[in-house]
Amino acid sequence: MAVVEMSKLNLIAMSYDRDKILNALQRTQATEIKLHSETEYTAPLTEDTEALSERLTRGETALEVLLPRIETYYKANKIKSDNLGEVEISYHEFIGAGDNAQKCEKLIEQLNTLLDKERELKAELASVERLISSAEIYSHFSGSLRPENTAHTALRLGTLPSQQKDAFCAQAENIPLLSFRFMASDSDSELIMLAVHRASESDMNDVLQGVGFASCPFADDCTGEELYNSLKEKKREITKNIEKINSEILSFDKHIKDLKIYCDFLGFGLEKATSAEKMRKTAATFLLEAYVPEEAQPDVERAIDGATDTVWYKFSQPSEDETPPTLLKNNKVVKNFEAVTDMYSPVNYREFDPNTVMAFFYSLFLGFIMGDVIYGLLMTAFGGFIYLRQKRETGMKKLAGVFAIGGIFAVFWGFLFNSFLGMNALPYTVMPDAKDGRYSLMGIKIPSVLVISMLIGMVQLCAGYVCRAVQCWRRGDIRGGIFDGMSWACFMVGLMLAAVGLVEDFSIPSLAIAGGIVAGASLLLAMLTAGRKEKFFGKFTKGFGAAYGVINVVSDILSYARLYGLMLSGAVIAQIISGFVVTGYNGSSPFLFSGNAGLIILGVFLMIVGHAFNLAIGLLGAYIHDARLQYVEFYGRFYEGEGELFRPLGSDMKHTRLELSETN
Question: Cα–Cα 20 to 30 A to 620, which of 8, 182, 305, 602?
Fold first, then answer.
């Protein structure tokens, strides 16, 4: 539960050693280059990245097309390969990709040439298929597609819409010296051959135009059958060529690993070239500043010393006006919840890391909302399965971890509520019924679980004020921690005691008095000390503002009613589904014990689909509203955020992962 302390590295070395030093720093995975401050007698260091960027784009484009195609081919043929996913390699394999640059560039060029040719053939195939579609009706015509006119007769060959056939025949009777014959037809068109005397050609053209006649689009000096067969043959030839090219593309599967390593190597090269903009230079040297975790400082020292002898460097503490990047050091459980905080805003380097505390409350609330033993077991099983299958620390893996841990809390709450897919399976129930349970609060009947959810919320708000106190004490502000943190934490404790005392079912009225005294005294202390840094009038307004802030506190407590609402909706849906299928609902006979095969099958379907839907919708709502409670109600007490995550040089690899044994 800590933000890792950072050191600042200042380094000066010969310009010709820059690449070796950056490679060494990348191997440590512990150095983030920062913008170097302006230094006398130095100039900005720049490097052209256009050519490198183009090479990387070509390589990535080729892989984006190649990988899905090979993956589909492997699945269809049940071929297993470790190269389709993330490839684990040694550092020497990664750096050695530079020696294979010529080979990989040639492979990429060949692959892109094949892909371009394939695109051309597919475009040609689409064109031929359109021609085949148009020529199909002419395949029944054994005469020439270019009928020749005579001195006194005009010949026309073409198609007209089938629905216009009768209209044409009716109008053709009024045209003298016209002869026509329908040669073939399909679902939409009629193939027609017309012969007319020159004197009536104009009248014929008017009629044909009115009925949507289309002249034969083919000018080939052959029969329709010959044209159609030649087009079909051309299609077969193009298809064969496409298949041949596809086979050649699939043959690149043996080069996937090399291409992945090379593309990541190019990406690292581009990152080095881009990071040059953050450095300074003299005539013969370059200057670099970077942030390094203090615990990794010995590794970085060994890496630099191993790269070159002509180098000067030192480590120092970042100045107060600097804000180093944030690197958190949490256990495997809490690390999953860092993604929740990062969606809001990463932890600031100079503040208290709240993820451990937040992880507990997030899991507690997630489990409370789901509140069912079977749902919790499913969350843990599926979440754990996805978590274990993901090798890299991706967002999906962390989300799966959050749900898996939340599932454990859901099992805990499920036992307390005696809920197993919405059914009571235990002979006892610790918690009141979510739907019908009521507490009497000052004579008013209030849903019991609503009261419990707001009491849980008060506990988190109290923890938020304690975190605020810790934040102040870490910065040496002892009085701020007491007056702005602990006094309000005591106020929340007083409110909780008073709320419990006012619930008549608990029969502890003395708690209401004790809680009122604690809350009142704490609020008075907060009011008197709120303006301690202000002058006379400011002290009064600050104190009044502190008293007015109680309204916001009450509003925040009411926000935790959403826990009850989400939990109740999921519980009721689960009860209805299981009621119809297993226990009977409102006196009806349960489907599973009806003796009707159709109802039994329907019951099994409802249990699987209904509860799966309820679990999915419940998780979606719980994830969103649980996060909202952390961001607004909890973090609103103390959290500053606006940090930038630590991103070491060369850590952003898309296709490969360095073996840990090789990087340490």
Answer: 602
Taking Cα atoms as reference points, which of 66, 109, 69, 63 lies closest to residue 656? 63
The number of angstroms, rounded, from the C-alpha of 609 to the middle of its chain's C-alpha atoms is 25
Provide the residue ranges of all domains of the chain, joining segments of one domain with +.
1-38+279-327, 135-235, 332-637
DSSP 588-643: PPPGGGSS-HHHHHHHHHIIIIIHHHHHHHHHHHHHHHHHHIIIIIIGGGT-----
Between strands 43-44 and 87-89, the pairing is unpaired
Question: Do 1-38+279-327 and 135-235 have matching folds?
Answer: yes
Which three-class secondary structure state does DSSP give residue 150? coil
Q: Which residue in 336, 442, 310 sits closest to 15, CA to CA? A: 310
Q: Does domain 1-38+279-327 have CATH number 3.40.390.30?
A: no
Q: What is the pLDDT of residues 314-371, one digit of tens each?
A: 999 999 889 999 999 999 999 999 999 999 999 999 998 999 999 999 999 999 999 9
Give the CATH architecture of domain 135-235. Answer: 2-Layer Sandwich (3.30)
Mean pLDDT of 30-52: 90
Contact predicate 361/559, CB 8 Å: no
Q: What is the pLDDT of residue 662?
A: 47
pLDDT digits (tens, 9 = 90+) for 67-109: 999 988 888 888 887 777 888 888 888 988 888 899 999 999 9
User: Which residues lie below 8 Å from residue 376, measured CB to CB, with a gap of 6+?
Assistant: 367, 370, 406, 407, 408, 409, 410, 411, 412, 413, 414
Tell me if 156 sits within 8 A of 149, measured CB to CB.
Answer: no
Please report the DSSP string for 453-468 in residue order: HHHHHHHHHHHHHHHH
Q: At what angle do helices 561-578 and 611-628 cross, to 10 degrees?
A: 180
Show Cβ contacts of residue 525 under 8 Å, excluding neighbours closer than 6 positions: 483, 487
Burial of 436 (0-12, 13-18, 19+ CB in 10 A): exposed
CA distances for 290 relative to 35, 558, 596, angstroms = 8, 47, 73
CB-facing half-sphere around the CA of 5: CA atoms within 13 A: 8
**Continuous segment of H or E residues that includes residue 438:** strand 438-441
